[in-house]
Amino acid sequence: MECGTDEAGRGCLAGPVTAAAVILPNSFKNKILNDSKQLSEKNRSFLRPLIEWSSISFGVQHIFEPEIDTINILNASIKAMHGSIEALKMMPEFIIVDGNRFKPYKNIPHQTIIKGDSKFMSIAAASVLAKTYRDEYMEKIHEEFPMYNWKKNKGYPTKEHRAAIKAYGITKYHRKSFRLLPEQYKLDI
């Protein structure tokens, strides 16, 4: 029983960091499934129910802005991955993790794999679930603060998002510990 885990939203200025863990059956095959960043939104939406239905088990965990600001984004990402593994119906015997940083979870052996989301189906599946659950959350909070256009930028540091922060300030969903605007080198006089 091997689970793959990955996160989404680590580089965002607003919203949670979201992780997913997925245990797939050995027989699982899919020609479309890949790192969620390589997939269109349409393909991610198509794959999500397929992954949920086909998986032996999956779990998803959000870690929200106040905690990100308290424990930092790396620790929050790892905590989200641990939470997603905890949400599985059964404990895996081995954990494969996208990236190069992870803290041991309940003495279960693990391996970090750089670009693992493009090499292993279970990590790719976890990346799709993490991204789609996080995007869904950002689309929901967009309704509360439409001027930041989170339904489109999902909280990432786009020019449009930074211009909105400059114009309207920050919200309860912004990460206060992040540099929300570029350094200011001249006075606005």
UniProtKB/TrEMBL annotation:
EC number(s) reported in the record: 3.1.26.4
Annotated function: Endonuclease that specifically degrades the RNA of RNA-DNA hybrids.
GO biological process, one term: mismatch repair
UniProt entry keywords in alphabetical sequence: Cytoplasm, Endonuclease, Hydrolase, Manganese, Metal-binding, Nuclease
Protein's name according to its UniProt entry: Ribonuclease HII
Binding residues annotated for a divalent metal cation, in chain numbering: D6, E7, D98
SUPFAM superfamilies for this protein: Ribonuclease H-like (SSF53098)
Co-factor binding details: Manganese or magnesium. Binds 1 divalent metal ion per monomer in the absence of substrate. May bind a second metal ion after substrate binding.
Subcellular location: Cytoplasm
One cellular component (GO) term of this entry: cytoplasm
Entry's Gene Ontology molecular function annotations: manganese ion binding; RNA binding; RNA-DNA hybrid ribonuclease activity
Domain RNase H type-2: residue ranges: 1-189
Catalytic activity: Endonucleolytic cleavage to 5'-phosphomonoester
Family, similarity comment: Belongs to the RNase HII family.
Gene that this polypeptide is encoded by: rnhB
Enzyme class: hydrolase
Cofactors (names): Mn(2+); Mg(2+)
Keyword Manganese attributed: yes
Protein species of origin: Winogradskyella sediminis
